[in-house]
Amino acid sequence: MQFPVHALAHRPLTVGAVAELVDLPAASHVSDDFDAVDAEVQRRGWCWEDSLVCESFRTADQHVLCSEGASPFGDPDARTFLVFGELYPVDPHDERLANESWLYGLMDRWQEQPGWSGHRPCTGQDCEAVLTQAAQAVTEHLGALPERTFLSSATVMTGPELTHRIWRTPTHALILGPTADNGPYGYLTHLQLSCTPLDCGPDLPSADDEDGLVDWINAHIDW
Question: How far apart are CA 22 and CA 173, in angstroms?
């Protein structure tokens, strides 16, 4: 867990934030019409967000929420994720360990959000502490420990090995852990909680099947 990290920004995940994400698929349906979505965004105290993750929302808890559909409200088939942390990992293959130093500017934007804080430099252990706190919030809301817990591999994201945790409701998978930032920058990594339909992939692999678990996660969170 001592893998070096250039920068970490995060906003603690709360039980209320977990509940809101988990409840989105069963919420009152809001069509993809912009005015209808905007009205629901304002009603919830959210706002539109495009500078951190393209075509996303900033929730009232100041986390970043992204959905594969234009409306995340009342769509049980949508894959949705909530970002509560962002890290800029060190590339150990870069001899100068400088990597893309301009990315500090983007990390500044994350850290400057209300309620967010940051660490520069830090280690994978610091990132793991953020995930552990988030896992406690998910466990408290669901009343259950995760069904699977394992260290993620580089096939899931860039950076240090960090813990992935998986819960299931009767209809959805909740996946907590690091995930590649698939935006135009590519190199950064989200710390996020995903809520995705269980039927995005086959049945959950066994705990000792890491390759199967990685494939299962990617099938649920990638679109």
Answer: 10
